[in-house]
Design brief:
Elements: E1 2-6, H1 14-21, E2 27-30, E3 39-43, E4 46-50, E5 63-66, E6 71-72, H2 74-87, E7 97-100, E8 104-105, H3 110-119, H4 133-141, H5 156-173, H6 181-195, E9 199-201, H7 203-212, E10 217-220, H8 244-251, E11 261-266, E12 269-271, E13 280-281, H9 283-293, E14 305-307, E15 309-310, H10 311-321, E16 325-329, E17 339-348, E18 351-353, H11 358-362, E19 366-373, H12 390-403, E20 407-411, E21 419-421
Parallel strand pairs: 1-10, 1-11, 2-5, 2-10, 5-7, 6-8, 7-9, 11-16, 15-17, 16-20
Antiparallel strand pairs: 3-4, 12-14, 13-14, 17-18, 17-19, 20-21
Helix pairs in contact: 2-6, 3-4
């Protein structure tokens, strides 16, 4: 099984790359997160944002798995499948979808907990997507939640009511404004009735059997390494295991079965929500990059914070994941700039540090930059590596040498076909 992860704070362009390499895989399996993701893919020139569904849905031969590590919101799932059916009925996504019976449900009350924690001054504000992801994982860990497979139980409605009525009492105590309870129940149970008709199975058995039969499986990570619950910039992180190790637990696949680990990175950095961002830029310069890169959350539409490429953070993420190939996206956005800064080290009290570390972040960390001469060539028409400008090749080579991993794919624009495979690396 190969794994694909994001190496920064999300929104690196993972969905587009998966869509591109789908034809090489039989199965695309999501292993973490839920509808907090926002994987944008252009299908017949139309932008589609997948939040919960794996990014293999647009390739007709691919089977898509929502694995055990994912939290599933039935309402969101039904809506997303409806959008795809309208877009292209021949895609038959529902027939090519398997959902883990052991994946946890995002209950309709979870988003209200998310809102309460975000907005109540007694709690930390994280800047979440308010999709109820953290409360769903919290109740999973507390062992007070329901799982997707429970929808077949005769007890399901009674259990759902008992849990959500308790949630209502808790939320009312917070002073939270809630919809009429029966309206919430009706909407949720109607989505559950829809989900029951889908294929809800032990996906671990399916994925392992597929691997044993020699089928190719790609584990699709959502969010990104620096948002990992354990190794990210806690508390400003998501609630799941976003790194390559999370693919093994989230899908029930042994580490011995792992092959390539693709790491996706943007030529600069973005972050949505609160939290440390060493190379962040502000003001006019930031606004220009944000507008040019269309850096607005695909899930929440919030303006993304923007900054320069951060090699120490990238090295840390590559170490956590054991990345074997890099996919560089959005270099086209930097096209036409006179100079492109890259953070090579952090300086703290006169000492230089090549790696990200939480200890440094707590101190007065100063990013140190190397400035590359900009490039101005038509990335949209790049076919082979020789078409790249020397300045851009210098930038690419620097990244490869600094992190000791080759860049094997270069995304040259937002459309499906705007990606080139770099057969010869500058890194050996
Ligand atoms: P949550 O995952 O909704 O709980 O949000 C926690 C943090 O992760 C917030 O800073 C979100 O903006 C961020 N986040 C969650 N999902 C994504 C994503 O897919 N891309 C980028 N940031 C994300």
């Amino acid at each position: 099984m190969d794994i694909l992860v994001g190496l920064q704070w999300g929104d690196e362009g993972k969905g587009k790359f998966i869509d591109h390499i789908c034809s090489r895989y039989d199965v695309i399996a999501r292993f973490n997160g839920g509808a907090n993701a926002g994987h944008s893919i252009y299908y017949h020139k139309q932008k589609v944002t997948l939040k919960l569904l794996p990014s293999g849905v647009f390739y007709p031969q691919t089977l898509n798995v929502i694995g055990t590590g994912v939290v599933v919101n039935p309402i969101q799932l039904q809506e997303e499948l409806a959008v795809l059916r309208t877009l292209d009925p021949t895609l038959n996504v529902s027939e090519r979808l398997m959902i883990s019976a052991k994946a946890h449900l995002v209950l309709p009350t979870h988003k209200y907990f998310d809102i309460v924690y975000e907005e109540n001054p007694d709690y930390r504000t994280i800047g979440t997507t308010k999709n109820g992801i953290a409360p769903a994982y919290a109740h999973k860990i507390l062992r007070q939640n329901l799982r997707v497979g429970d929808v077949y139980s005769a007890q399901f409605e009674a259990d759902f009511r008992s849990i959500t009525q308790r949630h209502y009492r808790e939320l009312e105590a917070f002073g939270c404004t809630l919809p009429a309870y029966e309206d919430l129940v009706e909407e949720f149970l109607s989505a559950v009735a829809f989900v029951k008709k889908l294929s809800i199975v032990d996906t671990e058995l399916y994925v392992n059997q597929a691997l044993n039969e020699g089928k190719k499986v790609l584990a699709e990570g959502a969010q990104a390494s620096m948002l990992d619950i354990d190794h990210g910039t806690y508390p400003y992180v998501t609630s799941s295991s976003t790194i390559a190790g999370g693919a093994c637990t989230g899908l029930g696949v042994s580490p011995t079965k792992i092959g390539e680990i693709y790491g996706v990175l943007k030529a600069y950095t973005t972050r949505v929500g609160e939290g440390i961002f060493p190379t962040e830029i502000l003001g006019e310069q930031a606004e220009e990059l944000r507008q040019k890169g269309g850096e607005f959350g695909s899930n929440t539409k919030r303006p993304r914070r923007v900054g320069w490429l951060d090699i120490p953070a990238l090295k840390y993420a590559i170490m956590l994941n054991g990345v074997t190939q890099l996919i560089l996206t959005k270099s086209d956005i930097l096209n036409g700039r006179k100079e492109v800064p890259v953070c090579t080290h952090y300086e703290v009290d006169g000492d230089l540090y090549p790696y990200f570390s939480t200890n440094l972040v707590e101190k007065n960390l100063q990013p140190q930059y190397k400035t590359f001469e900009g490039w101005d060539f038509d990335l949209q028409n790049v076919g082979v590596k020789e078409d790249l400008s020397p300045n851009f090749i210098a930038f690419l080579a620097y990244i490869e040498q600094a992190v000791a991993v080759p860049v094997t794919f270069l995304s040259t624009g937002p459309q499906r076909e705007e990606i080139i495979e770099l057969s010869v690396s500058t890194y050996n």
